[in-house]
Each structure stands twice: as C-alpha cells, then as structure tokens.
Write a structure and sequence with these properties.
homodimer; DNA-binding
DNA sequence: TGCAAAAACTAATAAGCGTTAGTTTTGACA
DNA sequence: TGTCAAAACTAACGCTTATTAGTTTTTGCA
C-alpha cells in the first residue's frame, strides 16, 4: 500500500497540487486525469480525495496563489519612489524571477485559467484586468514624465506580459543560456523599446537610477 | 434533417474545421467534444465523419496550414534584399497581419499543438524549431552588421514571437484601439528594443529604408 | 421520374472520466 | 498492546467521450 510522502511543509496537499501542476503544464488541465495525478504520486485516484475537494480545487489553488504573488508585488512598486521606468523594470524583473522559481504554476495560471469554475473564473478575470489597468496607468505616468516614449499603454502592457510569459525555457535555462544573461537580454529589449530616446542627456541620469521599495 | 451548408470554397470540411477552430480557441481542444462541434453546425456528431477522418485530423489541418503560411513568408524574406532590421520588421508585420486575418487558427497553432498525435507532433515541433533558428540567424546577421544591438538571439526571437502571439484581442481590436495603430505601436516597441542606438547618424538612413520582396 | 451516391440519421460500442461508498490498512499515542 | 482516527484501498456509479454500424433521407443526374 503506497502512500503520499509530505513535503518539507508537511502538507500532503501540496504534493498533490505540485504533481498535478507538472501534468497540467505538460498535457493541459482537461487532458490530465485524476488517475494520471495519482499514478505519478504512486497511489490510487480515490485516495487523493482524503486531501483535496476536487480537481477544480487544484486549479483554483494554483491560479489564485500566483495571482496573489503578482498583486502583492505590484502594490509594493506602486508605493515605492523613483523613476517610472525603473518601476516598470522592477515589475519586469519580478515577472522573470517568478518564471524562474514558479515556472509550472505561472504557466498554468497563464494558460489554463479558462477552466476555472464559476464564480472563481469571473473573479480571476477581474483580478487580471485590474492588474493590467494598474500597469497601464504606471506606463502612462512614465509617458507624461517623458521617460517613456509615447505609445498605446494597452498594447505596451500586453507586449511586456506576453513577451515574458512566452519564454518556454526559463526553468531549464541553464542549457541554452544562463539565467542572469537571459534576464538581462529580455529586460534590455523591453526597456529600450519603451525608453524615450528623444530626451536630453541630463534626464538619462535620473532615469537610470533604481527605485527604492518601501518595506 | 439539418445539413452542413458549404462555404464559398464549396468545402463542407472547411465549415467543420472552422467551426471546430472557434470552439478549440474558446474551450481548448480536449474540452471540445465532437458533439459540441456538431451542435454549432446544426447536425448530429456522427454526420461529421462523412467529411473528416477524426477529431485529431481537424487539429492537424489547422496547425500545419498555419505553419506552412509562416514558412512560406519567411522564405520570401530570406530571399529578399535590404537591411536586416527591415526584414525583421517585415516578419513582425506578417505575424501581426496573420493575427488579424487568422486569429483563431494562429491561436490554436500556438496553444493546442501539444495535442497533435505522433508522428505529426514531432514534425510540427521540428518545423517550429527550424523557423526560430532561421529567425535567430537573421537577427545575428543584423547584429554583425551593427543594425541590431548585441543581444542573445534566442531570447530576442522568443520575445518577438510571444509578444505578438500574446495579444489576445486582435480580432476585436476595434473596441479599444484600431488595428493599424495596434500594429504601429507593437512594431515600434519591438524594433526600437532591437535597434542599435549607438550607431552614427549616416547609418540610420540605410536602416530605415524598406526591403524589396522578390516576387 | 428513377436510380445511385452522398450525407444525414439513430443506436450502440468500449473506454475513460470525476467522484462516492464502503472497507481495510496504517500510524500515533494511551 | 489496544484503540482510534487518518489515509489508503477496491468496487462501482452515472456520465461523457470518440467513433462505428446500420439505416434512412436527400441530392444530382439520366
């Protein structure tokens, strides 16, 4: 009789959720069965229900935990001081670091949220819309201050988010290119794409200084 | 007794494939049933099999048709003359125009290819790898010629492709922003992010001229 | 109009799905 | 060691799946 071995947290549920996450990422939520999840853990499918409510609950846990982490960081950046372009850079770097440390879960949150059950689906979509609006507002402030080149903020937000979200190999990045270099390249392309290159030199010094997160 | 009304091509299969595409885009391939597809057309599920081989064949048709269109265009660009940055711009604009005219199908080709059956899955992945390699080689040529800022070409390719692929609302873009402005904003962010801003002024004239596609 | 082919239908298949019920095993503690 | 709850198990439910078989209807043409 096999059993679920708890992780360092002591939570058997986390073992199930993270095993499921691997399969959701690889095969998609719908194509992954409870029997698939059970098999990778080494138990029978009904045993999972001693620890979780339903398959949908697993997806809920993944999507909302990731959404919360992003929202918390955005709040911190909004409350910080410094040039707008540096704030944007901080957000970009946070997204990249999330891709490094939480790749599977971020991927699922990005690609499988459609299968969330109501009313959670509506809630999730609202949170996402809210996040993007606030990011767009930040960009607009940068444009107003001549730090960022005049651009449609709606397009810019989606460009940034999907560019980062689209890199498939953040987690195994050591193969083709090391993580730090991956991050610097990506930040550079996006930040230079947004920077207002028409400004005078004295402003550049201001723009390149980094923000201070208020703890 | 309902029936399938052929489109202007005269092909009933195309009606099935495009109806399926709408559902695949909305609910995902696995979550879409043959009964779902049949219902939107107004027939019973088994009737579909008079025109198609299987559900998998539908996905195959969609993914490989889109892949072919991109490959054809890339070949044209490779055979054309002009500055590399203009070639890249042409590719970006083609991707954007594909998002406008073939949104559903491009989305499926991007997001549902995992469910292709072997050996088509392997074939598709090879085609995609090949496409990206050739795009990276093009970028490298631009870097060598000082048109493009030195950057990891692997990262740049994925940044470009996923940025374009990630804009979710190309087809209903008229709501928030018109198509032309969407395109110009996106091209601007990406091209400026790649441009080598350290070069001298006389080079700029060359870089801004457009390429000539050899017909 | 009559005939053949195309294309629709109904009924049914075997397989797989998430989940529940009821039972047995396990592990921690008295 | 005996007890009790936690957590595993087997069996099965009701439902959905893609697809096939066999039949009926529709369509295009002589």
């Amino acid at each position: 009789m096999a059993k679920i071995i708890p992780d360092k947290n002591g939570s058997k549920k986390d073992v199930i959720v993270q095993s499921a996450a691997s399969l959701f990422k690889e095969k998609g939520y719908t194509a992954t069965s409870m029997r698939d999840i059970a098999e990778t853990i080494g138990v029978e499918a009904p045993s999972l229900y001693n620890h979780i409510e339903s398959k949908k609950e697993i997806l809920n846990d993944i999507c909302f935990r990731i959404a919360r982490l992003f929202t918390i960081h955005l709040k911190e950046v909004e409350l910080s001081t410094g040039p707008v372009l540096s704030k944007i850079e901080s957000i970009i770097r946070f997204h990249i670091s999330m891709m490094m440390t939480e790749y599977k879960n971020v991927y699922i949150s990005d690609h499988e949220w459609k299968h969330l059950p109501e009313p959670y689906l509506t809630d999730f979509k609202n949170q996402r819309r809210n996040y993007r609006s606030r990011l767009a507002a930040l960009l607009q402030k940068g444009i107003d201050k001549n730090e960022i080149t005049p651009v449609n903020t709606y397009v810019a937000v989606l460009t940034i988010l999907s560019a980062i979200g689209g890199i498939e190999s953040w987690q195994r990045s050591s193969k083709k290119i090391d993580a730090k270099s991956l991050e610097e390249n990506m930040v550079n392309i996006l930040i230079e794409g947004l920077r207002n290159h028409a400004i005078i030199n004295t402003d550049k010094k201001i723009m390149n200084q980094s923000i201070k997160i208020n703890q």
